[in-house]
Design goal:
mainly beta, Immunoglobulin-like, seven-stranded mixed beta sheet
């Protein structure tokens, strides 16, 4: 793996406005584990030779059931029938969902222009003891190059948060990258929160608040407690500490800073909600 070093400095005034409803939280449901997705995707071509395969489950997984007998990576020969086990190690990351990553040995890469298969067997169980109902397989084809490009930050949302009825308990910040990220690299993310109000003390959030959506593994979801974070109303500046810890599936580290602003509003009125007005050009209504 050959990290490509360059600096990206991004300060986001984001494009999204996010209103919050007061729907009460539902009771947790004990789920049967389902394989939501596997990266590389099924039948994906030109996969980088240093791309580590990842399995995303719908719920948290019992790590003791993740073994080389339940998550298997094989190379398919030219006949399409012969299979050869690929040696490596497995890591499990649980944080609302279950993520299992296959790591190739240090300095070992996939063979170029070959077909591989990831198999997940029924022995996998959730932390609640529910078993995977069916085996799952996904195939991919390698290209001939290594991935040496670091992940790129696309955008961050939302820009505004509204808490008109004081019903907001928590809020999500969605940090969008151009490619899937390694879940283990998100374990120690810290947020520094500051406000221009001189009475506001800078806050540092270090608890386990980072989530990963298996359907969109290129997104980091940072969930913060509203009453601890955004009080009083105003403009807040947030910064992620040690962003270079964030890695893509080939082990390339993010290079640059991640900082952005969020406005907390007690109420919000879109400009186009204003009434009609009369000018020398006649009556105008914002629609």
């Amino acid at each position: 793996m050959f990290p490509l070093a360059f600096v990206v400095c991004i300060c986001c005034s984001n494009l999204f406005y996010h209103d919050i409803d007061s729907t009460p939280d539902s009771e947790p449901v004990i789920q049967t584990p389902v394989v939501d997705s596997i990266i590389p995707g099924n039948d994906q071509n030109d996969v980088a030779l240093n791309r580590n395969p990842v399995v995303y489950f719908s719920c948290e997984i019992d790590a003791t059931t993740i073994t080389d007998e339940t998550v298997i990576l094989e190379k398919i020969d030219e006949t399409g029938f012969g299979r050869e086990r690929v040696q490596g190690s497995l890591t499990v990351y649980n944080n609302g969902i279950g993520v299992v990553m296959f790591h190739l040995p240090e300095g070992i890469f996939f063979e170029a222009q070959k077909k591989y298969c990831v198999t997940v067997k029924r022995g996998v169980r959730s932390i609640y003891g529910k078993i995977l109902e069916d085996d799952f397989q996904s195939f991919f084809n390698t290209g001939g190059t290594l991935d040496s490009d670091p992940p790129v930050l696309d955008y961050i949302s939302p820009e505004y948060l509204v808490n008109a009825e004081n019903s907001l308990k928590s809020f999500d910040i969605r940090i969008n990258f151009n490619e899937a990220l390694k879940s283990e690299s998100l374990r120690n993310i810290e947020i520094v929160l500051s406000n221009s109000n001189p009475d506001f003390n800078t806050k540092i959030f270090t608890e386990d608040f980072v989530m990963h959506d298996p359907r969109r593994p290129n997104i980091i979801v940072v969930r913060l407690d509203f009453n601890r974070a955004l009080v009083p109303p105003g403009e807040y500046h947030l910064e992620l500490c040690r962003p270079s810890d964030i890695e893509d599936l080939a082990g390339n580290s993010f290079s640059g800073t991640i900082e952005f602003s969020i406005s907390y509003l007690v109420s919000y009125k879109h400009p186009c909600y204003s009434p009609c007005f009369t000018s020398d050009k006649g009556k105008n209504c914002c629609r």
